Amino acid sequence: MPLVPPSPDSLDDYGVDRAARPLLATADPGLLDDLLRLAAAAGVEVEVAADAVAARRAWPRAPLVLLGDDLADRVAAAGPTRRPGVVLMGLDLDDAQVWQRGVAVGAEHVAFLPDAEPWLAERLADAVESGSAAPLVCVVGGRGGAGASTLAAALAVTAVRRGLATVLVDADPLGGGLDLVVGGEDLEGVRWPDLAGARGRVATAALDDALPRIDGLSLLSWDRGDVLAVPPEAMAAAVTAARRGRHLMVVDLPRRPDPAAEVALAAARTTYLLVPAEVRATAAAARVAALVGPLTADLRVVVRGPAPSGLPAEVVAEVLGLPLAAEARAEPGLAAALERGDPPSLRGRGPRARLSGQLLDDLGLLGGRRRRRAA
């Protein structure tokens, strides 16, 4: 499903889509009346889609989707992007096939009225708590050692420098730990193993208070224990809570997505595939793109120099069949700075800082500080 970008008029001062509303997708008049009544009681404005085509357009950016079972088969046939926050509204308790249709559309829950009314009212309120959910950006390496974790950290650090409330999420259990990249390994706070049992709702305020913070950047990473995976339900709960009230979420992904990483990919506005300008790296990245591409709405390539054989970035992107987002130039001293625990782009200078600024500009995330300077 192609990404449907928000209208520029719907963006707030930080580029966050303030018009995104929970989606009610059904052509059943009785179900629609019940859901509209629930939304009104919760004080939540919603978007209504009466057919599968309209639902497909609003699907990627809605903070919550309540899909009527009357449209389930047609939505499933269109191959919706897998994403968190989809609830299938069953119409008949005696219909045993409704659970299969829920799986087909990627629903987290199947709910029936009136029994689910209190739970649905809470989900609707949660969906718009503290405004629209922050845009989520994923970064994945085209091969081992491509520098995806460094780019993800640089992007998050640059966003904080611009005054954007940002959370950096480490979704790669074998990546060594983003806390080491940003110099936060000794900070107190919850890590993924502490959240491994999370299901359903995670309170935003509680998560805000619990996460480690480095110079204004919130971080959700791993500890040094033996927990190497979290359930996708835990990822969905943590990501949903962490996105509320912020301006950006950056997620560092493993090259082979596990179920938890798939949750982040489904929710991403854009996913950046970082590829060194090398023939073998491009071949490896083609395999990563084949795994990641079907799971995310918008996949773009960032080509990292230098190119030993002079391979142009445009050729790398053409071979991969992906749009070229940017070129990442070599940065002398970066490796040594990371070894010292200095967060990349902390001082706002150098190739990684300029690259991160370019990507944030392309996302429309100017930030308060940048906007004032531009004015």
What string, H for helix and E for strand, traces the elements in order? EHEHEHEHEHEHEHHHEEHEHEHEHEHHH
Number of strands: 13
What's the overall average pLDDT, rounded? 85
Q: Flag low-confidence runs.
A: 1-18, 371-375
What is the beta-strand fraction?
15-25%
End-to-end C-alpha gap: 37 Å
Q: What does the largest sheet look like?
A: 8 strands, mixed
- Rg over CA atoms, rounded to whole Å, is 21 Å
What structural class do helix, strand and pairing data support? alpha/beta
Helix content: 25-40%
Structure annotation, total helices? 16
Strand order of the largest sheet: 8-9-7-10-6-11-12-13
Shape: globular
What does this protein structure show overall?
This protein has 375 residues and is α/β, with parallel strands linked by helices. The protein is 38% helix and 15% strand. The protein has 16 helices and 13 strands. The strands form 2 sheets. It has an 8-stranded mixed sheet with strand order 8-9-7-10-6-11-12-13, sandwiched between helices. A 5-stranded parallel sheet has the order 2-1-3-4-5, sandwiched between helices. Strand 12, helix 13 (313-320) and strand 13 (324-328) form a beta-alpha-beta unit. Helix 1 packs across helix 5 and helix 10 packs parallel to helix 11. The longest helix is centred in the first third of the chain and has 14 residues, at 29-42. The radius of gyration is 21 Å and the shape is globular. It starts with 22 loop residues before the first strand and ends with a helix. The model is unreliable at 1-18 and 371-375 (pLDDT under 50).
Blueprint of the fold:
Blueprint: E1 23-25, H1 29-42, E2 47-49, H2 52-58, E3 65-68, H3 72-77, E4 86-89, H4 98-104, E5 109-111, H5 117-127, E6 136-141, H6 148-161, E7 166-170, H7 178-181, H8 192-195, H9 204-210, E8 213-214, E9 217-220, H10 232-243, E10 248-252, H11 259-267, E11 270-276, H12 279-292, E12 299-304, H13 313-320, E13 324-328, H14 334-339, H15 351-362, H16 368-374
Parallel strand pairs: 1-2, 1-3, 3-4, 4-5, 6-10, 6-11, 7-9, 7-10, 11-12, 12-13
Antiparallel strand pairs: 8-9
Helix pairs in contact: 1-5, 6-15, 9-10, 10-11
